[in-house]
Amino acid sequence: MAGMEAERASLLAALALQxxxxxxxxxxxxxxxxSAPRPATPAPAPVAAPPRGSDAAPPxxxxxxxxxxxxxxGRAAEAAAAxxxxxxxxxxxxxxxxxxxxxxxxxxxxxDGAPDSGLMLIGEAPGAEEDRLGRPFVGPxxxxxxxxxxSVGLRREEGGFYIANILxxxxxxxxxxxxxxxxxxxxxxxxxxxxxxPRRIVLLGGTAAKALLxxxxxxxxxxxxxxxxxxxxxxxxxxxxxxxxxxxxxxPAAKRDAWADLLMLRRSMDxxxxxx
Length: 276
Hints:
Layout (H helix, E strand, L loop, with lengths): L1 H19 L51 H11 L3 H10 L5 H4 L7 E2 L5 E5 L4 H6 L6 H11 L11 E4 L13 H18 L3 E5 L1 H8 L5 H4 L3 E6 L3 E8 L2 H6 L4 H15 L7
Helix pairs in contact: 2-3, 2-7
């Protein structure tokens, strides 16, 4: 008797659990017998081969799959190469849909300053203030950079330089650009340089330096000396790598190294330094 009560209680608990799961309707009037053998599945009828010499049509081949779009990097290179001037390049970047960054950013941050100044500065990516205004280096790090450059006679408002970034769209949360994003926008950056035709380039921070110099070393090893950036139509453009102003805000002691780099740039522009 006690065994029957225990079994009944177990069955009621199982039913309550099924109710909790939402099983409120029965699928059959009687429960299926799970121990009964399953009926054998009939084998499919064989398909008779057409007789030899008959006019039966052969089976149709599947139509070819539609051609896939070229990879986003290839489309970026094609769009960049087709831009005949800076205005066309800007329009090409706006129209390029190969990156999700365009959908999360507020504004395109293309460039600022004087393209014909002969000096082009290239940073990493826009921040929140740059994204809001659509201009590069206008936040706290940009203000520090402007003061530093003004100390060696280079003022943005007077056409002293031209400035842009590797990425023209702000990454969400100001995160570091991924290798894939850098590779995707690099054709636009190289075309940007080719159209601006600078005589010298300053690479601000490790992301810009490693991307354009194809280097693996960090910025502390790359800074303080001249390199060359290969640009179609221009050959090797002298490039000076230096610390990013955002890094200087976090590490004020490093301003001494950045100051030494700016003096090297100034001497090159004055014709005193043959390296640049």
